[in-house]
Amino acid sequence: MINNKYDFVFLFDCKNGNPNGDPDAGNEPRMNMETGCGIVTDVCLKRKVRNYVDMVKNGEACYNILIKPDKPLNEKFKAAYEAEGMPVDETTKGKNPANELKARDFMCRNYFDVRTFGAVMSTGKNSCGIVRGPVQFSFAESVSPVTIDNVTITRQAKTDEARASKGETEMGNKPVIAYGLYRMNGHISAALANSTTGLSDEDVDLLWTAMRNMFEEDRSAARPDMNVRGLYVFKHESVYGNAPFSELEDKIKVVLKDGIKTPHDFDDYEVTVDENMPAGVKLLKL
To answer: Which of 132, 148, 165 is the last residue of a domain?
Structure first.
């Protein structure tokens, strides 16, 4: 149970990398074609939270991760029925609401990402219902337009004898952006947490830790230099909130410094924070 609604603004950047490739565009970094600003999807960011929690908790009870490529989802749903001593493989969807609710509660208790982000668990014969998650991320969008560069790369190691016999260096390309500072908005509904998933204050603290550190163990050739630049949390005194987010998000302003036209680094931006909060709201700079 949590007693506070939360809203937050999350800043992170990417330098000489691909923060979120689009498979429909040759894996080029995602972009808003109208504005030229870069995009990172909510799904991408949730994946990094899941990976961090899975790594640090390492199978600890109640901190399993549902959405990961270990085994089919329907097998996990079946395991919930077995753990609760209920009949399995009887096509329960909509036919036994009490069992479905019991299975849903089991999934919320045992899977961190279910009680955090929610999940559709109504597939297969052992339905665990649908959970609307109390934690919601928006798409992240870069503050300024980004430029996609297709960097040519070479490969000397050949995959088979036919290619090796040609004796030629193979060519490829690597799509990257030179620099982008991204901003994401997010929300935690205490009402949903308390009525449905059981998200706790400890879970919320773990979420903040995961967001602050999720790029540290995610570095790769495609994402060598991604860093968190700010996590600004608006903590409401009440479950239902004390001010609209439209008023709170304007408290965090990110603009290019005077004289800078094309940003190349975080230092090219100025972040200003208005700490004069509405009544009942506390700003946490994490």
So the answer is: 132
Shared domain check, 10 and 96:
no
Amino acid identity for residue 89 in this structure: D
Q: Residue 54 belongs to what domain range?
A: 47-132
- List C-alpha distances in Å: 35 to 2, 38, 39: 39, 9, 11
How far apart (Å, rounded) are the C-alpha atoms in residues 162 and 237? 68
**Ranges in the chain, pLDDT < 70:** 92, 152, 156-160, 162-168
pLDDT tens sequence across 40-80: 999 999 999 999 999 999 989 999 999 999 999 999 999 99
Neighbours of 215 (CB within 10 A): 19
In this prediction the pTM is: 0.91
**20 and 93 fall within a common domain:** no
Task: Dig out the tokens for 222 from the structure.
Answer: 């495609």
